């Protein structure tokens, strides 16, 4: 079991919260990611960006929009909409006129007027009168001829010969003066009352006529047989190929609708996304449960899991940029720096599979990005300098290029050919290189993610480890003994961390800052006392204990003032745990043998360590400080000291909440013993040079010249 995967009994609330997060993630991905079949993205006179397409079944080649419109315009000249003729209208209106004319003044309107008007009415009704709305409809359709029918007979007439009500009225008065009839008298007869449309537009019959003409046109201009190559990568999409691709998409859509219903496609997408998300959640519950219980970890993982698939879909949908321009390797870089390698790889795999939903042919994309992610994880096993990001970007780019070019070569592409149909797609190669350059921006973005989610990267830890930082420089000036102690503890703790697989840079940085609380009262700590003066000699043991204990709270205050990361502040509060200030506690007991001593005033506030790194620091701090009090430094004394200190810490239960094993503690002991023997090794004494006279007297021979020795030590 992983040291970070402590057994935890999930309650109903935990299960409910995981279900809510899982459901919300799936819902967001399903909502924003593509639904149904992904459309092909291509343009005329541009190279085909995908792999070769071979027809799986026969389908017709549809005519282009321009060709289809040209044929529609051609048949439109043959189109004659139908107008229904009503013969009763003329008779009705003439009878009305005769009745009204009898009532007119015979002296003013002689019988010749009646004959003239009846003749004109007969002429306009014979030509045909249509309403203004019908006339506008026919003009908008650019019709030249109409078909007038009454019963079963129909005649073709020019549209220009038909009259509107206004045109009929003007025709009634035209040339009346030249024929001896007064227009003023004719207007008094209100001729408009006897004009009414006798032709009406027949919409259903006209539409049927048009559909019949359209149906006579063939929508296709050939067929593509099954097994025929439609287009290949790099081929220029000309007009003919463009129409084949449009016909292929249309036929594929029709075929899909016949085989699979839309709701089945949606169910498939939901199942695909759910499977990936559930597998990811199972991984965290099985191997890294500490991340599930951390809000910042969950927030970072969800952000990465949603950001890249949604960005990929947006670019593909709107045809903005190539997906190979996106530096997907940023995701494993961030997860590796802030979490661990295994989590980085699993999350990267899930994200790439989700991104692949937006692509038509995702094989090359998936393989290329997975290899690039593995390369990034391998290069960033321990990020500490900016140059590592540069090396990582170069290695990731080379890995992606090798994989992509090798896949193209397996598909029959060649590197040296100048023919687009058989050459490597160098456009994608350029995009991969640009994506590698964009990967360099992960360094400044890392700082942004640190502040946003509250993580601390190794780069930040290395920067904090610089002894020229204000706080460490102040510690070295005010409390030089404590500063030297912190350096020794940092080296010991980092060595143990590397041995047991913990975070060495984290514990090294924490060790440098764990005793900064001694700065305000440095003289009260023995390592900073020069001479025999000890301020505790004149103080009560309880007060002395409070001064010593206070360095923890004052260290936390300094950490807050200098804005140290939370993970560093935790080392300050836990490096003594809930232990006792034993020197003053025992001294007080000895001074008050009859008093029942309360240990609370002599106890550190804690808490006890909760991580392996904090436990390592506690052990290193106690061992290094106690080793200074040894009277004799040899293998037996150092080994006994290390065993006594660490066994005592274990007996007091300081490590009960730590993900650290007995084997880890044994390895830590071995490292402490070995390193302390080297630090406190014995040195050989240098011989003194005797005087020349004494040498000559003792040997009876002249002395040899002295050889100056280097600073050899054991």
Give your account of this protein's structure.
The protein has about 725 residues and is mostly helical. The chain folds into 3 domains: about 10-40 and about 260-455, no CATH class; about 75-215, no CATH class; about 460-680, Hypothetical protein af1432 (Orthogonal Bundle). It has helices at about 10-30, 65-75, 90-100, 110-125, 130-140, 165-175, 185-190, 205-215, 240-260, 260-285, 290, 295-320, 330-340, 340-355, 365-380, 385-410, 425-440, 440-455, 460-465, 470-480, 480-500, 505-515, 540-560, 565-575, 580-590, 610-625, 635-650, 660-680, 690-700; strands at about 55, 60, 80-85, 145-150, 155-160, 200, 220-225, 230. The protein has a 4-stranded mixed β-sheet with strand order 5-4-3-6. A two-stranded antiparallel sheet has the order 1-8. A two-stranded antiparallel ribbon has the order 2-7. β4 (about 145-150) and β5 form a beta hairpin. The chain is elongated, with a radius of gyration of 48 Å.
SSE order and pairing:
Elements (H helix, E strand, L loop, with lengths): L11 H21 L20 E2 L4 E4 L2 H12 L5 E4 L2 H15 L8 H17 L4 H9 L4 E6 L2 E6 L6 H9 L9 H6 L10 E3 L1 H13 L4 E5 L4 E3 L7 H21 L2 H26 L1 H4 L2 H24 L11 H9 L2 H15 L7 H17 L6 H25 L15 H13 L3 H12 L4 H7 L5 H9 L1 H21 L3 H10 L27 H21 L4 H9 L7 H10 L20 H16 L7 H17 L10 H18 L12 H8 L15
Parallel strand pairs: 3-4
Antiparallel strand pairs: 1-8, 2-7, 3-6, 4-5
Helix pairs in contact: 1-10, 1-12, 3-4, 10-14, 12-14, 13-14, 13-15, 14-15, 15-16, 16-17, 20-21, 21-22, 21-26, 21-28, 22-24, 22-26, 23-24, 23-25, 26-27, 27-28
